[in-house]
Amino acid sequence: MTKEYIIENFTANISVDEYISRFRDEKRFVEFCKQCPNYGNSWGCPPFDFDTGEFLRQYEYAHLMATKIIPVEKNIPIDRTQELIKPERLRIERELLEMEHRYGGRAFAYVGKCLYCPDSECARKCNRPCLHPDKVRPSLEAFGFDMTRTLSELFGIELLWGKDGGKYKVA
After folding, report:
1. pLDDT, tens digit, for every residue of 13-48?
2. Rounded Cα–Cα distance for residues 2 and 72 (Å)
3. Cα(55)–Cα(50) distance, rounded to whole angstroms?
4. How far is residue 167's CA from residue 165's CA, in Å, rounded to a whole number?
5. Tell me: the pLDDT tens digits for 47-99?
6. Which among 21-25, 50-54, 118-122, 124-128 has the top mean pLDDT?
7. Pfam families annotated for this entry (predicted)?
8. d(CA 41, CA 114)
9. Has this prediction a pTM greater than 0.85?
10. Which residues have a Cβ under 8 Å from the Cβ of 139 and sit 6 or more positions away?
C-alpha cells in the first residue's frame, strides 16, 4: 500500500511564562471555542471548572510537538483531510501520554476535539464524568493559545486554511 502522505515532526521547548506572554490570548480564542458545537459538550473543551492560567503556571517549561502532514496527492478535498490526520493524531496522542507518564506533568497539547467518544455520546452532555479521563486532554487552543502564531514562530510552519469557510486542519 502506498503512503498517502509524508510527515515532518518538529519540537520546541519554551518556558511556560514566555509561552503564555507571547502566544496566549485566552479571551480571544475562547470566543472562537464558543462558536463550536463541542463547547460545553466535550470534556476536552471549555468552559473548564478551574482557572486555566493557574493550571498553566504550575509548570516551568513546555515541550511542544508539531507534525506537518504533506499529502502526496495535491488538492485533496477538505472532507478527506481527516483520513490523513486521524492516524497521525492518534500516534501523537499516544506519544504525549507516554511522555506524561514517564516524566510527569500534563500532556494537554492535543489540537482539536476529543477522538475517544463519538461526538453525540460524550458523557459531559449528560453531566456525567468523562469515560476516558486517562486519555482526554484539553487542546492548547482551548486554553487560549494562538496556534497559527505558535506554528509559525516556533516551528516555521504556515497553517494552511481550507477554502470552505476558513476551516483549518492540523494534527
Report:
1. 999 999 999 999 999 999 999 999 889 988 889 999
2. 10
3. 8
4. 6
5. 999 999 999 999 999 989 898 888 888 888 877 887 888 888 888 888 888 88
6. 21-25
7. DUF2284
8. 11
9. no
10. 44, 45, 108, 109, 110, 111, 112, 113
Q: Let me know how long the chain is.
A: 171
